[in-house]
Amino acid sequence: MGLSKLILKMAGWTVRCTVPDYPKSIICVAPHTSNWDFILGKLAYASLGRKAGFLMKSSWFFFPLGLIFKAIGGIPVNRKVHGDLTTALIHKFNTTDQLNIAITPEGTRSLTTRWHTGFLRIAYGAGIPIILGVIDFGTRSLLLEQTFTPTGDFDADLRAIKDFYKSYTGRFPEKFSAE
Fold it and tell me: Best label site of 2, 49, 55, 97, fewest CB within 10 Å?
């Protein structure tokens, strides 16, 4: 048993994965209400023998933590600089053979009903699947059992994805809304 599996087992978490190990994908992760989500998500994916990068706000990339985050696949996002991250990530997916990136569409650990659609736009533009990753504190389960293919109707796609996540519980349930 690998270290990641052992840590999760000792902490009482189970990992269920039925989706293929895609060479390229966006891993949509929700609910996102705690910093523990990052640790649990990284452990879950590693326990499957898979690697994924992740987007994280740039303020977390200070020395020496930034070196560690970059080494494990972190991509800093500066929310104050309005560039075109979506276009850059589509290009990155189109010019590489293997790339999986975890994204939390809520974009915050605070309560919000406004989920970002960039992950949908990236997946649609690059022609890659979205894996719906769940961190369910209610059942202490980490799930990768559903693949979503964006249609280009981002409002309808986002509604379908939010509906999927409605029954799951974040670390802080009062901070999660799929409305």
Answer: 97
Rounded Cα distance, 149 and 42, in Å? 23
SS (H, E, C) 98-117: CEEEEECCCCCCCCCCCCCC
Separation CA 160–CA 150 (nearest Å): 10
Q: Where would I find the beta strands (DSSP E) of 38-158?
A: 53-57, 74-77, 99-103, 130-136, 141-148
Output the six-digit token pair for 83. Answer: 């560039």
pTM as predicted: 0.90
Strand partners, 132: 28, 146
Domain chopping of the chain, boundaries: 12-32+50-167
Compute the distance between CA of residue 179 and CA of residue 176 in angstroms, rounded to an integer.
9
Q: Strands of 74-77's sheet, edge to edge?
A: 14-17, 141-148, 130-136, 24-30, 99-103, 53-57, 74-77
Question: What's the pLDDT tens digit per position in 70-127?
Answer: 988 888 888 766 668 899 899 999 999 999 999 999 988 999 999 999 999 999 999 9
